Amino acid sequence: MENEVNMMPRIGEEAPAFQANTTQGPIKFPEDFKRKWVILFSHPADFTPVCTSEFMAFGKMAKEFEDLNCQLLGLSVDGLSSHIAWLRRIKEKIEYKGMKNIDIRFPLIDDISMNVAKKYGMIQPGESQTAAVRAVFFIDPKGIIRTILYYPLSLGRNFDEIKRVLIGLQTVDNFSVALPANWRPGDDVIIPPANNMTLADERVADQSGAMICHDWFFCTKKISKEEVESKIGK
Q1: N or C: which end of the chain has fewer CB within 10 A?
Q2: Domain check: are 132 and 214 in the same one?
Q3: Range of 42's domain?
Q4: Could you tell me if 191 and 143 lie in one domain?
Q5: Does residue 166 fall inside a structural domain?
Q6: Is residue 13 part of a domain?
Q7: Do 193 and 143 fall within a single domain?
Q8: pLDDT tens digit at each of 234 positions of the chain
Q9: 183 found inside a domain
């Protein structure tokens, strides 16, 4: 329909359920991925250059995401035979930026009906009515959407940032903290604001070194990179 609006789910909501065929067999989402983080991401089309570079990057980093207890799950509105032929072509023919022989083993969803893409608001008519934009959904082990990233068709994603977001979300959950701009493991973290002024004043006056208060509403503390890494992926 020309003016159809495809609503996307929001952060904090349950990820929409679906069943689909993939390059790794049929799946039921989220049932098949309980106790795992999931990165569900869409790409516009098989046999296109930006998408090829992205799949090579994801394929190269797949073990890193697996070690973080995270399942990668790709999607485009192409059919299964196209997916299989494209992934074979990537493995057998494409060499790019030192990457070659990249074997994509995570599932790539057949969504020629656009059913899943529409559930997740991946079809955005202002960009394209026939191809999914570059969406990334971070879904936690409880099936809750925690972060959403959207990119246009012409711009490839930053995969270091995707991994940083995943590590950051797991750090937030494991340590009950917030994270400042440009945070990386080993950087200071933010202590949630005090719920009353008396506690805020006590924090500011604290000279123990356990925390640093830049103002009454902004206190940080150190969590080592080793401590963060001991918790993530659990």
Answers
A1: N
A2: no
A3: 18-160
A4: no
A5: no
A6: no
A7: no
A8: 445 555 789 999 999 999 999 999 999 999 999 999 999 999 999 999 999 999 999 999 999 999 999 999 999 999 999 999 999 999 999 999 999 999 999 999 999 999 999 999 998 888 888 788 999 999 999 999 999 999 999 999 999 999 999 999 999 999 999 999 999 999 999 998 766 565 555 666 565 667 888 888 899 999 999 999 999 998
A9: yes
State the pTM of this model: 0.91
Residue recorded with tokens 């001991």: 230
DSSP string of the chain, one letter each residue = -TT-------TTSBPPPEEE-BTT--EEETGGGTTSEEEEEE-S-TT-HHHHHHHHHHHHHHHHHHHTTEEEEEEESS-HHHHHHHHHHHHHH-EETTEES----S-EEE-TT-HHHHHTT---TTT-SSS--EEEEEE-TTSBEEEEEEE-TT----HHHHHHHHHHHHHHHHHT-B--TT--TTS-EEEPPPSSHHHHHHHHH--SSS-EEEETTEEEE---HHHHHHHTT-
Residues with catalytic function: 51
What is the rounded CA–CA span in Å between residue 10 and residue 62?
26
Whether 41 and 102 map to the same domain: the answer is yes
